[in-house]
Every structure is written in structure tokens, then in C-alpha cells.
Amino acid sequence: MKIVSLFSGAGGLDLGIKQSGNKIIWANDFDKNAVETYAHNIGDEICLADISTIDIKTIPNCDVVIGGFPCQGFSQANLKRTIDDERNTLYKFYYQVIEEKQPLYFIAENVKGILSLGNGNVIKQILSDFESAGYVVELHKVNMANYGVPQTRERVVIIGQNKKKVGKTMLFKFPEESHSKDGQNGLPKWITIKEALDKYPNPDQPNSLCNHVYSKYKVVYRNFTAHRKTNPDYPSPTILARGNGKGGVCAIPHYNGERRLTIRESAAIQTFPDDFEFFGSMGSCYRQIGNAVPVKFAELLGKELIRIEKDELCEKIKEKKTA
Q1: From the candidates 62, 71, 250, 285, which is the catalytic residue?
Q2: Domain ranges, residue 122
Q3: What is the pTM of this model?
Q4: Model confidence over 285-303: pLDDT tens digits?
């Protein structure tokens, strides 16, 4: 399918969608480092621009819109009409693209915390907005560890299907979980951080891996995000975009207790391939990775889009033969 990507960042979601066989025809982000990373690894279909300067009519028509809209304004937004709150410009842009372009489907990813904003009223309003734009919507709470990602990353994924173009019965089958914490239901156990990272060489020794460098921010354990001990027998904690309490980037401690994860190791936890190169300062690279959707999970979403497209083609062939 033809994909338009909003708030693309370094392109974790886009890469997985593309690897499954879909085509990214237009993408956008305002972060110049993320755009450079995207262009180098995925393609030059990304444009560097602030969304406030983009005319929606210039965005190409597409089959699917993807992206995770930021939600800074929602906690204080007017719950009666979130889309009109001036602090929610980014969400409003995402909504307006959906409303204007009327793609067959959209996929929106967000943090788990969006479910509790306004005692749950914010997410209800968001789903209502999408329904009013002509879509049947489904909300899924996801722990990425249940999909073979070596990370206990909890996120919300909203799937929208165009009622007029596709129908009111949701055709998109959300990917089934492939792993479980303790091997329940005959599934393999969660992949641990040690299993995911043991193959990487000591970053303090000569090596040929790109981005295999780490923050020298001292490892001091305390009960605070990104300062807790990393258990080698469990998946990684959530890879963060920021987390030192002052708005800066804070890499997860390595399970050896001696240093932080390298950029390369953080990317591996997000299931980026080893030849995917990040550009910008160390802090920018960590932030790009922390903001991304794990590539492995994104590929599952992309495969489902391919399945739908093939099924639709088969139906058209059957109809033609019958006629």
C-alpha cells in the first residue's frame, strides 16, 4: 500500500512498514538530525519542515496514514473539544490529514499514559474525533515484549478503517502475540536484554560497528527512571527519549553495571538492524531511538496491510471471473 508518514522521526515505524512490502510515498519531521537519519537509511521521501508550514493539500493521496502524534496539550485540554485546543496543534494536524485525505486505513501510536489523561476522557474524545472523520476505530494496548521485542515497552496503537471505502466491519486483524513472560500458552518466553546484546563487542575496544559509543553519564543506582539496575534475565526497560529529570537524554544502564547502553545497543533493543546509522549528537541519537516504534513490531503491522491488499485483489479477480 502507499503510505504517508507523519511525525516520522528516525523511521522505526516506517522501516518496518516498508520492509513488509509497502511503499512510503511521503514523510515528514521537523528534527533535522532525525530527517538525516531517515534519508540515509530509508529514503529521500522525507521532508524537513514544521507542520505549521505544510499545506495539507500538497500531501499526496495515499492508502494509509501512519504516525504517532505528540500529545503535550492533552492533560490540560478542554475535554469537550480536544481538537480545537490550541495546545494540540500536532494532533489537530494528524486529524486533518485523515479527514482531508480519507485513506483506507490509519495507524496511530502513542504512549500508554494517554489512556489515563483526564480520567480517560481524553482518549474517548480522540476516538470520537476519528469516528466523526468517517472511521471505525480499534484501540490496542501493547507490551512490545509480547511481540519478540527485547523490551517491556507499553504503548497504545489505534487502527482506523474508512467506513465508506472499506466498510464498517474491521478487516485489519491486529497481530497476535508471539511471546509471553513465562512461556504461557506454549509461546516462547520473552527475549531478555542479555540474549539481545551479548553478541556486541566491548565498545571500549576497537570495533567496526557504527554508533557503538555510549554516554559517560555515571551509573548510580536509585529508584528513578533510567537509574535502576538492569536485570540481564528480563527484557530491557523502556528505551527512553529523555529521562534524567531535567529533560535530557538518559541511556539505560547496561546489565554489567559498569556503563550505559551504547547507541547501537539501544537501537538493537528497538530492533533496528545493525547497519542502520544514526546522525547527530549522542543525545540526539539516543532521543531518536527512544522516540521510535520497534521495527520488528512495525513490520507485523505492515504485513497485515499487505494481507488485506492481497485479499482485496483476490476478491476483485473473483468478481471479474463471475461477471
Answers
A1: 71
A2: 2-180+295-322
A3: 0.92
A4: 999 999 999 999 999 999 9
